[in-house]
Amino acid sequence: MCYNCGCQMPDNDMGNPKNITNKTFEESAKAMNMPVEKAKKNTLELLQKELAKITK
Asked: Which residues form the domain of 25?
């Protein structure tokens, strides 16, 4: 998916390279010299914090 649209197809950018895909995580992890799993975990943790702000 693009992670942001909700289609749940993590490798499909839906025709728009600006959508977030597994490739996005691969490229950003490589740029920071870290495993993809760590980049996803860091993202999840930040998203949880940001969502908590919204629901308060």
From this structure: 1-56
